[in-house]
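$ run holo --ligand "calcium ion" --emit tokens
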Amino acid sequence: MKRIKIVLSILCLITSSLGVNSKEKSNHPNVIMISVDDMNDWVSCLNDYQIVKTPNLDRLAEMGTLFTNAYCAAPLCNPSRTAIFTGMSPARTGIVNNARDKTSAWKLRWPELNTMPLWFKKNGYTVVGGGKTYHETVPELFNPPHQWDEYFPLEIEKFKQKPHVEKLGITDREWFSDMPSHPNGSWDWGPFFCEDFDMGDGKTTKWAMDFLQQKHNKPFFLALGLFHPHLPFYAPKKYFDALPLDSVKLPEAPDWDLNDLLAGAKKIMRAGNDKGFKMVAESGELKNAIRAYLASIAYVDALVGYLLETLENSEYGKNTVVVFWSDHGYQFGEKERFAKRSLWRRSSRVLFTVKAPGITKPEMICEQPVSLLDIYPTLLELCNLPQPGHELDGISLIPQLEDNEKKRRPAVITHEIGNNSVCDEHWTYIQYKEGGEELYDRDVDLNEWKNLAKDSKYKGVISELKKWTPENQGINLKPVDK
Ligand SMILES: [Ca+2]
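-- output --
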């Protein structure tokens, strides 16, 4: 009898410990974070202005919540990505550009920081990344390896670097661009005669698919960083063939649009444009460039499709949170810009979707203003992890994932120090360090053509939105050893 009791007790212990384990595992879902680079809102689930169709991104959005009023924290790679991974706003970290010097590296400014991957790693997750997650200006300072259990290196097709192209096995390439060589060295576009998995992003996707086909005993955090549709706009030829040049639309850009911008705004916002728009437009290449950009979006859409299919056919299909973001947008002639680095909508609005098993419902659309800064606190809550030891500037999106109409504070976008945009459900308010304000009524002016800031009837609206702009920018910055 005693022996039976002991056996029963042991059985009970085993059963209960299994129960706890499986419960714990379900409390810590896996995370896949897919990111793309410089992709504006020309995707079919956000905007049907262009001809490109993005069935896989649309499908991903339909799996959970699509945020149609989502913004980057900064309209440039390094500050946007640093904000996502640190959870701290650019105004607070002072990391506002891509500079190769030490002023832009979070590891030097905030050396002990628990970045999102590092914090997941410290909390028992297997953390792997690949491609362009952070902006790797100087890898050891911008994306230090201690944050990851494994990292698949970024590979980019370089601008007209023949040896590199030959190394990829791509020997026959149509060079579309007749534009004079741009000093930035990456301004080119055109089709590659290759298959989807031959390009750098294809290889990174393949690596992520292989990861999903393996057995993992711990919950995982997988960051797949795709480089497309960043310049140079290269993609497999089939994506160009699907987009006839005649069907590509130039953005609407009336020549009077800049008349209501103040000189300070024009000066700041033209910086970083590198005379690019004029150069592209005068060479007659604008339509070709847009076509190649759209082909690059279609290519990245296909890669996301491969990953989703692999996820759904894997054992992780039902217990994995999937987050998708673009680091910011891109302008193709709106306000005479061929660039990012501006606070206007085409540069700051992004595709952002969240699928969270047990929380999100399919086909939900949330029109509330949200920021990519909200990703870090949202994932902590979804994965039942503690706070990382530093204050996060975003707030969890769980209330909106549960109720898409739940109200939310405006999103703030910062460009360099002192230039900010505040977007609520209705308005876009922009302020510039050198003076000048803009106010746009997005209900009637999605293109942000008519600046209402000078109209006294909107004084109240402006003062309400202004309250959200960051104060004392730069004051809290830690010294950097230059
Ligand atoms: Ca205007």
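-- notes --
The first helix runs from residue 2 to 27.
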